[in-house]
Amino acid sequence: MKGIILSGGFGTRLYPATLAVCKQLLPIFDKPMIYYPLSVLMLSGIKDILIISTPLDIGRFESLFGNGSDFGLNISYKVQEKPEGLAQAFILGEKFIGKDSVSLILGDNIFYGHDLTLLLEESVHLKKGATVFGYHVNDPGRYGVVEFDENFNAISLEEKPLKPKSNYAVSGLYFYDNSVIEIAKKLKPSKRGELEITDVNKIYLERKELTVKLLGRGFAWLDTGTFDALQKASIFVQTIQERQGIKIACIEEIAYKKGFIDKSKLLALAKRYNNEYGEYLKACADDI
């Protein structure tokens, strides 16, 4: 399976903070925002990753990650000239995806929870259909909303409804078979002028090929698109890390523990950081 991180857009809700830098490079406590979605793909076992971003920002991601070899990854890049909906990622990434299945994650989403890795590893083996994740929220009208029957089978999907049929939002992490490319190509823009990911999911639902897994009380899904959400996410990460002494979304640690890199490489990466982050990586090397 391939992985795509969609880090486009202009981040207008975060102006003036994002006037000169894209939001996915803003810090969430001690690391850039994009580390968090990247870590989710890595925890899934995905090593071939495409980062999609704006013409202005794509070079900044290349400077940050290079070709991904430092982390045992194969990272490539694609420019999105104009943001025209989440489903556009599959059209832009068609050559990258090839004949494989694909996971898409939004560049401003954070996932955390017990057994998250197990849930991801189950989803990454998808051969047919699609898997998305539902999460109970107080403000479902901001998201794509999934409606369930009495047995919690998905029966409808709506994008940013005025009158949501449930409080379950579809989070910004998706797993699809290869047919998603052709589905995306055939979509018509919505009233917002975008190729909606909800429309992609509706087609899979109509085909009876959509699985909706619920992220329950033990999971946190954070969307960091506003100043308030950005601040709360940083506090959340800081609180968990200081309490447990274990870092969230430490991509060097994940690469080591997943076997993407060896101990000598981890220690070499640790030397980059003359701070607590570097000391943490050195400690990780001694744990195994």
Average predicted confidence as pLDDT: 94
Helix content range of the residues, please? 25-40%
Tell me the series of helices and strands, N- to C-terminal: EEEHEHEHHEEHEEEEHHEEHHHH
Biggest sheet features: 7 strands, mixed
Strand order of the largest sheet: 5-4-1-6-11-8-12
Q: Kindly, what is the distance between the CA atoms of the first and last residues, rounded to a whole number of angstroms? A: 28 Å
How many beta-strand segments?
13
Structural class: alpha/beta
DSSP helix count? 11
Low-confidence sequence ranges: none
Shape: globular
Summarize this structure as a short list of keywords or feature phrases.
288 residues; alpha/beta; seven-stranded mixed beta sheet; two-stranded antiparallel ribbon; 11 helices; 13 strands; 24% strand
Structure description:
With 288 residues, the protein is α/β, with parallel strands linked by helices. Helices cover 33% and strands 24% of the residues. The protein has 11 helices and 13 strands. The protein has a 7-stranded mixed beta sheet. A hairpin with a 2-residue loop joins β2 and β3 (31-32). α9 (251-257) packs antiparallel against α10 and α10 (263-270) packs antiparallel against α11 (276-287). It is globular. The mean pLDDT is 94.
